[in-house]
Amino acid sequence: MTPPAAAASPATRETPWPVGLMSQKIKEWIDRLGQIWVEGEITQWQVRGGHVYGKLKDLQQDATVSFTVWRSVAQKLSGDFAQGDRVIALVKPDFWVKGGSLSVQVFDISHVGLGELLQRLEQLRQQLSAEGLFDASRKQALPFLPQRIGLVTGRDSDAEKDVIRNATLRWPGVQFTVHYAAVQGERAAAEVTAGIIALDQDPEVDVIIVARGGGDFQHLLPFSDERVLRAAASASTPLVSAIGHEADRPLLDEVADLRASTPTDAAKRVVPDVGEQLAGIDQARSRMSARLGQLLSHETDRVSQLRARPVLARPERLVDERAEELVRWIARGAELADRSIEDRASALSHTRARLTALSPKATLERGYAIAQLVSADGIPGTVLLDPADAPDGALLRISLAAGKLAAVSRGSELS
Known about the structure:
Elements (H helix, E strand, L loop, with lengths): L3 H5 L10 H13 L4 E13 L2 E7 L6 E6 L1 H4 L11 E11 L4 E11 L2 H17 L17 E6 L4 H13 L4 E6 L7 H13 L6 E6 L13 H9 L4 E5 L8 H4 L2 E2 L3 H8 L3 H35 L1 H4 L1 H44 L1 H6 L4 E5 L5 E4 L11 E5 L4 E5 L7
Parallel strand pairs: 3-5, 6-7, 6-8, 8-9, 9-10
Antiparallel strand pairs: 1-2, 1-4, 2-3, 4-5, 11-12, 11-13, 13-14
Helix pairs in contact: 5-9, 6-7
Protein backbone atom coordinates (compact mmCIF):
# COMPACT_ATOMS: atom_id res chain seq x y z
CA MET A 1 0.00 0.00 0.00
CA THR A 2 0.99 3.57 -0.52
CA PRO A 3 2.43 5.07 2.69
CA PRO A 4 0.33 7.83 4.27
CA ALA A 5 3.17 10.31 3.81
CA ALA A 6 3.23 9.65 0.10
CA ALA A 7 -0.54 9.97 -0.01
CA ALA A 8 -0.39 13.41 1.55
CA SER A 9 2.40 14.72 -0.59
CA PRO A 10 1.44 16.70 -3.73
CA ALA A 11 1.71 14.91 -7.04
CA THR A 12 4.61 16.19 -9.11
CA ARG A 13 6.77 14.90 -11.93
CA GLU A 14 9.34 13.80 -9.41
CA THR A 15 6.82 12.36 -6.93
CA PRO A 16 3.80 11.14 -8.98
CA TRP A 17 0.81 9.48 -7.38
CA PRO A 18 0.15 5.84 -8.02
CA VAL A 19 -2.97 5.08 -10.10
CA GLY A 20 -4.56 3.47 -7.06
CA LEU A 21 -4.08 6.62 -5.00
CA MET A 22 -5.60 8.77 -7.72
CA SER A 23 -8.52 6.38 -8.04
CA GLN A 24 -9.01 6.41 -4.27
CA LYS A 25 -8.99 10.21 -4.24
CA ILE A 26 -11.62 10.22 -7.01
CA LYS A 27 -13.78 7.77 -5.06
CA GLU A 28 -13.50 9.83 -1.88
CA TRP A 29 -14.50 12.99 -3.74
CA ILE A 30 -17.47 11.29 -5.44
CA ASP A 31 -18.60 9.72 -2.18
CA ARG A 32 -18.94 13.21 -0.70
CA LEU A 33 -21.78 13.90 -3.16
CA GLY A 34 -24.06 11.60 -1.25
CA GLN A 35 -27.54 10.84 -2.60
CA ILE A 36 -28.89 13.13 -5.32
CA TRP A 37 -32.01 13.27 -7.49
CA VAL A 38 -31.41 13.09 -11.23
CA GLU A 39 -33.65 13.06 -14.29
CA GLY A 40 -32.99 11.18 -17.50
CA GLU A 41 -34.15 8.62 -20.02
CA ILE A 42 -33.70 4.88 -19.54
CA THR A 43 -31.76 3.51 -22.49
CA GLN A 44 -31.13 0.07 -21.04
CA TRP A 45 -33.07 -1.98 -18.45
CA GLN A 46 -31.97 -5.54 -17.80
CA VAL A 47 -33.04 -7.73 -14.91
CA ARG A 48 -30.59 -10.43 -13.79
CA GLY A 49 -31.04 -12.38 -10.59
CA GLY A 50 -33.56 -9.87 -9.30
CA HIS A 51 -31.11 -7.02 -9.73
CA VAL A 52 -31.54 -4.39 -12.43
CA TYR A 53 -28.66 -3.15 -14.54
CA GLY A 54 -29.22 -0.28 -16.90
CA LYS A 55 -28.17 3.05 -18.34
CA LEU A 56 -29.59 6.50 -17.87
CA LYS A 57 -29.15 9.17 -20.57
CA ASP A 58 -29.29 12.95 -20.28
CA LEU A 59 -32.37 14.43 -21.97
CA GLN A 60 -30.45 17.15 -23.81
CA GLN A 61 -26.74 16.34 -23.91
CA ASP A 62 -24.84 13.27 -25.05
CA ALA A 63 -24.13 11.96 -21.57
CA THR A 64 -24.92 8.49 -20.21
CA VAL A 65 -24.26 6.78 -16.89
CA SER A 66 -24.69 3.15 -15.79
CA PHE A 67 -26.90 2.40 -12.82
CA THR A 68 -27.73 -0.56 -10.60
CA VAL A 69 -30.94 -1.25 -8.72
CA TRP A 70 -30.33 -3.92 -6.13
CA ARG A 71 -32.97 -6.54 -5.61
CA SER A 72 -34.07 -5.14 -2.24
CA VAL A 73 -34.89 -1.80 -3.88
CA ALA A 74 -36.28 -3.30 -7.12
CA GLN A 75 -38.86 -5.31 -5.18
CA LYS A 76 -40.24 -2.12 -3.67
CA LEU A 77 -40.59 -0.22 -6.95
CA SER A 78 -44.11 0.62 -8.10
CA GLY A 79 -44.79 0.52 -11.81
CA ASP A 80 -43.06 -1.04 -14.78
CA PHE A 81 -39.98 0.45 -16.37
CA ALA A 82 -38.60 -0.06 -19.85
CA GLN A 83 -36.24 1.43 -22.38
CA GLY A 84 -37.35 4.89 -23.45
CA ASP A 85 -39.02 5.81 -20.14
CA ARG A 86 -38.28 9.24 -18.71
CA VAL A 87 -37.63 8.94 -14.99
CA ILE A 88 -36.52 10.73 -11.82
CA ALA A 89 -34.21 8.65 -9.63
CA LEU A 90 -32.57 9.00 -6.22
CA VAL A 91 -29.04 7.82 -6.78
CA LYS A 92 -25.67 7.66 -5.08
CA PRO A 93 -22.65 7.87 -7.39
CA ASP A 94 -20.07 5.16 -6.86
CA PHE A 95 -16.59 4.98 -8.38
CA TRP A 96 -15.21 1.49 -8.72
CA VAL A 97 -11.52 1.80 -7.97
CA LYS A 98 -10.49 -1.57 -9.36
CA GLY A 99 -12.15 -1.07 -12.75
CA GLY A 100 -11.89 2.71 -12.90
CA SER A 101 -15.57 3.08 -13.82
CA LEU A 102 -18.36 5.25 -12.51
CA SER A 103 -21.85 3.98 -11.85
CA VAL A 104 -24.74 5.01 -9.65
CA GLN A 105 -26.74 3.01 -7.21
CA VAL A 106 -30.47 3.65 -7.38
CA PHE A 107 -32.43 3.89 -4.13
CA ASP A 108 -35.70 5.13 -5.63
CA ILE A 109 -36.98 5.63 -9.14
CA SER A 110 -40.26 6.81 -10.63
CA HIS A 111 -41.61 7.98 -13.93
CA VAL A 112 -41.56 11.70 -14.60
CA GLY A 113 -44.99 13.01 -13.80
CA LEU A 114 -47.31 13.34 -16.76
CA GLY A 115 -48.04 16.87 -15.73
CA GLU A 116 -44.37 17.83 -15.97
CA LEU A 117 -44.03 16.27 -19.41
CA LEU A 118 -47.17 17.96 -20.63
CA GLN A 119 -45.95 21.28 -19.28
CA ARG A 120 -42.66 20.95 -21.14
CA LEU A 121 -44.42 19.93 -24.33
CA GLU A 122 -46.79 22.87 -23.96
CA GLN A 123 -43.86 25.27 -23.58
CA LEU A 124 -42.25 23.82 -26.72
CA ARG A 125 -45.61 24.01 -28.51
CA GLN A 126 -45.97 27.71 -27.66
CA GLN A 127 -42.39 28.44 -28.73
CA LEU A 128 -42.74 26.73 -32.11
CA SER A 129 -46.18 28.23 -32.65
CA ALA A 130 -44.77 31.70 -32.01
CA GLU A 131 -42.10 30.98 -34.65
CA GLY A 132 -44.82 30.12 -37.15
CA LEU A 133 -43.99 26.42 -37.53
CA PHE A 134 -47.65 25.46 -37.07
CA ASP A 135 -49.07 28.04 -39.51
CA ALA A 136 -51.31 26.64 -42.22
CA SER A 137 -49.79 29.09 -44.73
CA ARG A 138 -46.44 27.26 -44.68
CA LYS A 139 -47.91 23.80 -45.23
CA GLN A 140 -47.34 22.30 -48.66
CA ALA A 141 -49.90 20.48 -50.77
CA LEU A 142 -49.25 16.81 -51.44
CA PRO A 143 -48.67 15.75 -55.06
CA PHE A 144 -51.65 14.06 -56.68
CA LEU A 145 -49.67 10.96 -57.69
CA PRO A 146 -46.20 10.61 -56.13
CA GLN A 147 -43.88 8.36 -58.09
CA ARG A 148 -41.66 7.63 -55.07
CA ILE A 149 -42.54 7.83 -51.38
CA GLY A 150 -39.90 8.28 -48.69
CA LEU A 151 -40.75 6.35 -45.52
CA VAL A 152 -39.15 6.88 -42.10
CA THR A 153 -40.15 4.01 -39.82
CA GLY A 154 -38.89 1.13 -37.68
CA ARG A 155 -37.31 -1.88 -39.34
CA ASP A 156 -39.80 -4.74 -39.91
CA SER A 157 -42.48 -2.73 -38.12
CA ASP A 158 -46.22 -3.08 -38.59
CA ALA A 159 -46.27 0.58 -39.61
CA GLU A 160 -43.92 -0.12 -42.53
CA LYS A 161 -46.01 -3.08 -43.66
CA ASP A 162 -49.28 -1.16 -43.38
CA VAL A 163 -48.04 1.82 -45.41
CA ILE A 164 -46.41 -0.22 -48.19
CA ARG A 165 -49.24 -2.76 -48.44
CA ASN A 166 -52.07 -0.24 -48.55
CA ALA A 167 -50.25 2.17 -50.87
CA THR A 168 -49.38 -0.65 -53.28
CA LEU A 169 -52.94 -1.94 -53.25
CA ARG A 170 -54.22 1.53 -54.11
CA TRP A 171 -51.60 2.26 -56.76
CA PRO A 172 -49.43 -0.73 -57.76
CA GLY A 173 -46.84 1.39 -59.56
CA VAL A 174 -45.79 3.46 -56.53
CA GLN A 175 -42.19 3.03 -55.31
CA PHE A 176 -40.64 3.46 -51.86
CA THR A 177 -37.35 4.58 -50.39
CA VAL A 178 -37.33 3.39 -46.77
CA HIS A 179 -35.08 4.90 -44.11
CA TYR A 180 -35.09 2.75 -41.02
CA ALA A 181 -34.83 4.46 -37.64
CA ALA A 182 -35.44 3.68 -34.01
CA VAL A 183 -38.95 4.84 -33.14
CA GLN A 184 -38.48 4.90 -29.36
CA GLY A 185 -35.62 5.16 -26.94
CA GLU A 186 -32.52 7.30 -26.84
CA ARG A 187 -31.65 6.94 -30.54
CA ALA A 188 -35.12 7.64 -31.91
CA ALA A 189 -35.06 11.44 -32.19
CA ALA A 190 -31.62 11.58 -33.80
CA GLU A 191 -32.31 8.76 -36.28
CA VAL A 192 -35.74 10.07 -37.27
CA THR A 193 -34.21 13.52 -37.81
CA ALA A 194 -31.46 12.00 -39.98
CA GLY A 195 -34.07 10.06 -41.97
CA ILE A 196 -36.13 13.18 -42.71
CA ILE A 197 -33.05 15.12 -43.82
CA ALA A 198 -31.76 12.27 -46.03
CA LEU A 199 -35.08 11.72 -47.79
CA ASP A 200 -35.61 15.46 -48.25
CA GLN A 201 -32.28 15.64 -50.07
CA ASP A 202 -33.25 12.77 -52.40
CA PRO A 203 -34.55 14.40 -55.63
CA GLU A 204 -36.58 11.29 -56.55
CA VAL A 205 -38.68 11.39 -53.36
CA ASP A 206 -41.98 13.24 -53.90
CA VAL A 207 -43.41 12.95 -50.38
CA ILE A 208 -42.15 11.77 -46.98
CA ILE A 209 -44.15 9.69 -44.49
CA VAL A 210 -42.98 9.38 -40.87
CA ALA A 211 -44.83 6.34 -39.51
CA ARG A 212 -44.99 4.52 -36.17
CA GLY A 213 -47.54 2.22 -34.63
CA GLY A 214 -49.37 2.94 -31.42
CA GLY A 215 -47.67 3.26 -28.07
CA ASP A 216 -47.91 4.90 -24.70
CA PHE A 217 -47.34 8.59 -24.21
CA GLN A 218 -43.68 8.33 -23.28
CA HIS A 219 -42.81 6.03 -26.16
CA LEU A 220 -44.10 8.68 -28.59
CA LEU A 221 -42.05 11.50 -27.05
CA PRO A 222 -39.29 11.32 -29.72
CA PHE A 223 -41.86 12.59 -32.23
CA SER A 224 -42.26 15.71 -30.11
CA ASP A 225 -38.50 16.25 -29.94
CA GLU A 226 -37.42 19.70 -31.10
CA ARG A 227 -34.78 18.27 -33.46
CA VAL A 228 -37.39 16.19 -35.29
CA LEU A 229 -39.81 19.09 -35.45
CA ARG A 230 -37.31 21.54 -36.89
CA ALA A 231 -36.11 19.01 -39.47
CA ALA A 232 -39.72 18.46 -40.56
CA ALA A 233 -40.38 22.20 -40.74
CA SER A 234 -37.24 22.79 -42.83
CA ALA A 235 -38.02 20.02 -45.35
CA SER A 236 -38.85 21.22 -48.85
CA THR A 237 -40.55 17.88 -49.60
CA PRO A 238 -44.17 17.55 -48.35
CA LEU A 239 -44.21 15.54 -45.11
CA VAL A 240 -46.97 13.38 -43.61
CA SER A 241 -47.08 12.47 -39.94
CA ALA A 242 -48.58 9.03 -39.22
CA ILE A 243 -47.78 8.42 -35.57
CA GLY A 244 -49.73 6.03 -33.37
CA HIS A 245 -53.50 5.90 -33.34
CA GLU A 246 -56.27 8.44 -33.80
CA ALA A 247 -55.98 9.76 -30.22
CA ASP A 248 -52.18 10.18 -30.34
CA ARG A 249 -51.12 13.73 -31.14
CA PRO A 250 -47.33 14.29 -30.95
CA LEU A 251 -46.12 17.75 -31.96
CA LEU A 252 -44.93 16.37 -35.30
CA ASP A 253 -48.61 16.26 -36.28
CA GLU A 254 -48.73 20.05 -35.93
CA VAL A 255 -45.58 20.72 -37.96
CA ALA A 256 -46.23 18.19 -40.73
CA ASP A 257 -47.93 19.27 -43.95
CA LEU A 258 -50.57 16.57 -43.35
CA ARG A 259 -51.56 14.61 -40.28
CA ALA A 260 -52.74 11.03 -40.82
CA SER A 261 -54.50 9.24 -37.98
CA THR A 262 -52.70 5.93 -38.63
CA PRO A 263 -50.06 4.56 -41.02
CA THR A 264 -52.87 2.94 -43.01
CA ASP A 265 -54.62 6.30 -43.25
CA ALA A 266 -51.36 7.86 -44.45
CA ALA A 267 -51.17 5.42 -47.37
CA LYS A 268 -54.75 6.27 -48.32
CA ARG A 269 -54.12 10.00 -48.09
CA VAL A 270 -50.87 10.01 -50.07
CA VAL A 271 -51.73 7.91 -53.13
CA PRO A 272 -55.04 7.79 -55.02
CA ASP A 273 -56.96 4.56 -55.45
CA VAL A 274 -56.46 3.24 -58.97
CA GLY A 275 -59.93 1.66 -58.95
CA GLU A 276 -61.57 4.92 -57.94
CA GLN A 277 -59.59 6.83 -60.56
CA LEU A 278 -60.54 4.36 -63.30
CA ALA A 279 -64.17 4.51 -62.19
CA GLY A 280 -63.97 8.29 -62.22
CA ILE A 281 -62.53 8.23 -65.73
CA ASP A 282 -65.31 5.89 -66.88
CA GLN A 283 -67.93 8.17 -65.33
CA ALA A 284 -66.37 11.23 -66.92
CA ARG A 285 -66.22 9.45 -70.27
CA SER A 286 -69.89 8.44 -69.94
CA ARG A 287 -70.88 12.00 -69.06
CA MET A 288 -68.88 13.34 -71.99
CA SER A 289 -70.44 10.80 -74.36
CA ALA A 290 -73.95 11.60 -73.12
CA ARG A 291 -73.32 15.33 -73.34
CA LEU A 292 -71.86 15.00 -76.83
CA GLY A 293 -74.84 12.87 -77.90
CA GLN A 294 -77.25 15.50 -76.58
CA LEU A 295 -75.33 18.24 -78.36
CA LEU A 296 -75.31 16.35 -81.67
CA SER A 297 -79.02 15.54 -81.33
CA HIS A 298 -79.80 19.18 -80.58
CA GLU A 299 -77.78 20.39 -83.55
CA THR A 300 -79.36 17.74 -85.83
CA ASP A 301 -82.85 18.94 -84.83
CA ARG A 302 -81.77 22.53 -85.37
CA VAL A 303 -80.45 21.76 -88.85
CA SER A 304 -83.67 19.89 -89.67
CA GLN A 305 -85.73 22.88 -88.56
CA LEU A 306 -83.62 25.18 -90.70
CA ARG A 307 -83.97 22.90 -93.71
CA ALA A 308 -87.74 22.79 -93.21
CA ARG A 309 -88.05 26.55 -93.60
CA PRO A 310 -89.57 27.65 -96.96
CA VAL A 311 -86.52 29.59 -97.98
CA LEU A 312 -84.39 26.44 -97.75
CA ALA A 313 -87.08 23.97 -98.85
CA ARG A 314 -87.66 25.99 -102.11
CA PRO A 315 -84.68 28.29 -102.53
CA GLU A 316 -85.91 29.32 -106.04
CA ARG A 317 -88.89 30.97 -104.38
CA LEU A 318 -86.63 33.63 -103.00
CA VAL A 319 -85.23 34.24 -106.51
CA ASP A 320 -88.74 34.37 -107.97
CA GLU A 321 -89.93 36.83 -105.36
CA ARG A 322 -86.91 39.01 -105.97
CA ALA A 323 -87.31 38.70 -109.77
CA GLU A 324 -90.95 39.86 -109.57
CA GLU A 325 -89.93 42.73 -107.36
CA LEU A 326 -87.11 43.60 -109.78
CA VAL A 327 -89.55 43.60 -112.74
CA ARG A 328 -91.85 45.94 -110.87
CA TRP A 329 -89.00 48.27 -110.12
CA ILE A 330 -87.82 48.17 -113.76
CA ALA A 331 -91.35 48.99 -115.00
CA ARG A 332 -91.64 51.72 -112.43
CA GLY A 333 -88.24 53.11 -113.47
CA ALA A 334 -89.12 53.05 -117.17
CA GLU A 335 -92.42 54.78 -116.47
CA LEU A 336 -90.75 57.46 -114.41
CA ALA A 337 -88.03 57.91 -117.03
CA ASP A 338 -90.60 58.28 -119.84
CA ARG A 339 -92.63 60.72 -117.82
CA SER A 340 -89.53 62.70 -116.97
CA ILE A 341 -88.51 62.80 -120.66
CA GLU A 342 -92.00 63.92 -121.68
CA ASP A 343 -91.99 66.60 -119.01
CA ARG A 344 -88.57 67.83 -120.12
CA ALA A 345 -89.59 67.73 -123.83
CA SER A 346 -92.71 69.78 -123.11
CA ALA A 347 -90.71 72.28 -121.10
CA LEU A 348 -88.15 72.44 -123.88
CA SER A 349 -90.90 73.14 -126.49
CA HIS A 350 -92.31 75.96 -124.37
CA THR A 351 -88.84 77.40 -123.88
CA ARG A 352 -88.09 77.11 -127.61
CA ALA A 353 -91.38 78.89 -128.46
CA ARG A 354 -90.59 81.72 -126.06
CA LEU A 355 -87.09 82.00 -127.45
CA THR A 356 -88.38 81.96 -131.02
CA ALA A 357 -90.93 84.66 -130.23
CA LEU A 358 -88.23 86.83 -128.71
CA SER A 359 -85.51 86.14 -131.32
CA PRO A 360 -84.51 88.72 -134.07
CA LYS A 361 -85.34 86.14 -136.73
CA ALA A 362 -89.00 86.20 -135.75
CA THR A 363 -88.90 89.95 -136.10
CA LEU A 364 -87.35 89.60 -139.54
CA GLU A 365 -90.01 87.11 -140.54
CA ARG A 366 -92.58 89.78 -139.84
CA GLY A 367 -90.99 91.91 -142.60
CA TYR A 368 -88.38 93.84 -140.76
CA ALA A 369 -84.72 94.07 -141.88
CA ILE A 370 -81.41 94.86 -140.21
CA ALA A 371 -78.98 97.27 -141.89
CA GLN A 372 -75.30 97.19 -141.04
CA LEU A 373 -72.47 99.35 -142.30
CA VAL A 374 -69.79 97.33 -144.08
CA SER A 375 -66.16 98.37 -143.66
CA ALA A 376 -63.67 98.71 -146.45
CA ASP A 377 -62.50 95.21 -145.64
CA GLY A 378 -66.00 93.89 -146.26
CA ILE A 379 -66.68 93.14 -142.59
CA PRO A 380 -70.19 93.98 -141.28
CA GLY A 381 -70.09 96.51 -138.52
CA THR A 382 -72.48 98.72 -136.65
CA VAL A 383 -76.24 98.20 -136.96
CA LEU A 384 -77.81 101.36 -138.34
CA LEU A 385 -80.40 103.01 -136.15
CA ASP A 386 -80.46 106.41 -137.81
CA PRO A 387 -80.36 107.09 -141.62
CA ALA A 388 -77.98 109.89 -140.90
CA ASP A 389 -75.35 107.33 -139.83
CA ALA A 390 -75.12 106.02 -143.45
CA PRO A 391 -73.53 108.61 -145.79
CA ASP A 392 -74.05 108.39 -149.50
CA GLY A 393 -72.13 105.65 -151.14
CA ALA A 394 -71.63 103.64 -147.95
CA LEU A 395 -71.76 99.92 -148.36
CA LEU A 396 -74.55 98.27 -146.43
CA ARG A 397 -75.58 94.71 -145.54
CA ILE A 398 -79.30 94.16 -145.28
CA SER A 399 -80.35 91.09 -143.27
CA LEU A 400 -83.78 89.74 -144.19
CA ALA A 401 -85.67 86.74 -142.95
CA ALA A 402 -84.70 84.69 -146.00
CA GLY A 403 -81.11 85.96 -146.41
CA LYS A 404 -78.79 88.94 -146.78
CA LEU A 405 -78.41 91.69 -149.45
CA ALA A 406 -75.65 94.12 -150.31
CA ALA A 407 -76.66 97.71 -150.92
CA VAL A 408 -75.23 101.20 -151.38
CA SER A 409 -76.58 104.15 -149.41
CA ARG A 410 -78.19 107.00 -151.54
CA GLY A 411 -79.00 109.35 -148.77
CA SER A 412 -81.84 109.40 -146.34
CA GLU A 413 -84.41 108.62 -149.01
CA LEU A 414 -84.54 106.14 -151.80
CA SER A 415 -83.30 107.40 -155.10
